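Before the break, one more example. Copy the sequence into your notebook; we will annotate it together after we see the structure.
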Amino acid sequence: EQKEKEWPKKITQLIAIATLFFAVCATFASLKAGGFSNKAILAQNQASDTWAYYQAKSMKETMYKIQLDQIDSNTNIDEEKRKSLKEKYVKTAERYAKEQEEITAEAKKYEAMRDESQIINQKFAGALTFLQIGILLLSLAALCKMLYFCYIGLAVGGFGAISFLIALLQI
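Here is what the structure looks like once it is written out:
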């Protein structure tokens, strides 16, 4: 009863408004973190698929290089046919090598997207953590009617809100 009398009504209103603000920020931080997590997973899958495609091209290039070696050692093929086959196999192997360069660039692009999405996800997740702790401390302050929980909750939640806004500005 003593705490009830000493506890100003304005503090309760401040806690309610701050909790509401932190909860709204936490909701959006959670949505953004989930969205960037999904984007990172999708980019990783695309990078993996692209590297598998690279590997298939590499295997085909190797097969043509092996054919080139076999042509040189095969004495049953006349010189004109040998020259024609070598030219064809060299062109094909070179084409696969060029395609591998393009595929590598594409795979690295997906990996960069994945890394960027993971970094942004971590920023939103960190902000969400501080926002939730701030909400918890403000709730504790309202229940226990202790001002220091209120101050700590406002500070922690405020840090979370600022972290959330900075992460928003960076995307």
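The chain has a mean pLDDT of 93. The radius of gyration is 31 Å. Try to locate both features in your own notes.
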